Amino acid sequence: xxxxxxxxGSGTNLQALLDAQASGALSPAEIAVVVSNxxxxxxxxxxxxxxxxxxxxxxxxxxxxxFEDRLLAVLAGHEVEAVVLAxxxxxxxxxFVERFPxxxxxxxxxxxxxxxxxxxxxxxxxxxxKLSGATVHxxxxxxxxxxxxxxxxxxxxxxxxxxxxxxxxQAQEHRLLPEVVRRLAAGELSCQGRLVIHARGNDRAE
Length: 206
Hints:
- By secondary structure, the chain is α/β, with parallel strands linked by helices.
- 34% of the residues lie in helices and 24% in strands.
- It starts with a strand and ends in an 8-residue tail after the last strand.
């Protein structure tokens, strides 16, 4: 399964996917292209170092549908079959999402449905919760509201601030995301309504 990874910033989740691909742990998924909506970000340098094609499609100054059409053209040129949002800071519309039904996944630094949107770790600290975590979910047209595929809990320590909590959540995202991508490519995920069904392979089980 050929993947596009959409990024906007530093690309630490992208790096986890690149590392998994280099070790063979991402197979049968393959990163065909990395696309950023912002030029000059560190994620593009990560893709370049890994020898993965990378493209900038800027959103500034474009109507949302035209921006998404340009994204779709790049993905079509690389024969992309599924999309991973790895720190991609744009909300995709129905126009884009319907091209890849149950083939777009996102990672989010909270136990959704708690704390959707930006600055989830800071939201968790501000609300005084004792437990946060990481979520990987299918993308629909809502904000971080698609069917949940996998989650892992991360305790909020008394001394935590947003940055320390975010760092520990990211460590779990880096473990969880490549495994979910592998399962998607292997045909081990299906969805009935909002319930995600995991059909585990014989040789890979948690």
